[in-house]
Design brief:
Elements: E1 2-5, E2 8-15, H1 20-30, E3 36-45, H2 47-59, E4 64-66, H3 70-78, H4 82-85
Parallel strand pairs: 2-3, 3-4
Antiparallel strand pairs: 1-2
Length: about 90
């Protein structure tokens, strides 16, 4: 699900309510020193993905998200957190 090391990571697959807790924990463990997380390989997201992005950014304020999919961009815009996430 989350690949990479050091400062660059990539998330692929899905972030949904079904796996949100596991993905959250994996990201918190891996993103402490990360600089960039590529989201372009996400093929399914729901509102839980927005929560994860916010939590990861709170844990590491320097973290940047790139490659936001159209579905994810729609969700962060809907929830009014586009400027906080992207």
């Amino acid at each position: 699900m989350i690949q990479g090391d050091g400062s660059l990571f990539r998330i692929d697959g899905a972030i949904t309510m079904d796996n949100a807790n596991a993905v959250l924990e994996e990201g918190l463990a891996k993103f402490a020193q990360a600089e960039v997380v590529d989201l372009s390989a996400l093929d399914e997201v729901d509102s839980s993905a927005v929560s994860l992005l916010l939590e990861w950014r709170r844990a590491n304020p320097k973290l940047q998200f790139v490659g936001c999919t159209d579905n994810l961009k729609s969700l962060v815009t809907l929830y009014g957190v586009l400027d906080l996430v992207l």
